[in-house]
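batch_manifest entry 22 of 60
target: Histidinol-phosphatase
source organism: Metabacillus halosaccharovorans
requested by: lab member K.T.
priority: normal
notes from requester: please return tokens only, no post-processing; we will run our own comparison against the previous entry in this batch. if the run fails, retry once and flag.
--- input ---
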Amino acid sequence: MRKKDGHVHTPFCPHGTKDTLEMYIAQAVQEGFTDLTFTEHAPLPKGFIDPTPMKDSALDYNKMEDYIQSVQEMKEKHKNDIRIHIGLEVDYIQDYEQEITDFLNEYGKFLDDSILSVHFLKINDRYYCMDFDEKTFGLMINEAGSLYHVHHIYYNEVLKSINSQLGDYKPKRIGHITLVNKFQKLYPVTFSTLKILEKILASVKEKNLELDYNVAGLRKEYCGETYPNSDIIYLAQKQKIPLIYGSDAHSARDVGKNYTHYDLLRNRY
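--- output ---
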């Protein structure tokens, strides 16, 4: 039986740890995984300015070839221990669809398995990294006018990402579709988002895509649940949408973290 962690970062991540690829792989093998996908943050689209203070959200273009080569070497070296997949976590960003497509056309042929995520939201002509910190999220609420409007903007961007035309190498898995809940203990949701989430799931199903079952939210101080949560997982399971476990590990110790949570919830439905 295959056991996969489909969302793992690397020492190439500018905002991650310096844990080596070997350390990530060793942890995956120790945890009994048969498959491991390295999904480093893809370089941001050309012309897009990273809104985070340190400009460290993603891999630098100049390191793409090193990244691919390094994972390819690990793939060959450990082929008798675990199946390693070369991937990326690609950001869908409003107004940069062509640049994203151009990037995927250049590097997609080297990729085995990737994720398409939304981290950056455009509010009143300014981009924000929505999951950077709670202060930034608060600024987004003020700029948008309400928490409801931030959720509305986010979920519509996720829907656009699903329906986007990004070429033959568009990722087949949609990342952490409820990331907007990362700070929910500080900013409680008092309104229903079920209708838009049902539309998102319907589009995922229609496009024959997968969902990232991301457990990183369980490790976040102000979240405390997976992305998506159990209610949305239930709806996805009913539609037989593939749910791929992702630790979203930025350090070796988090590879495979909370897998039992995923296994229990998946089998419950």
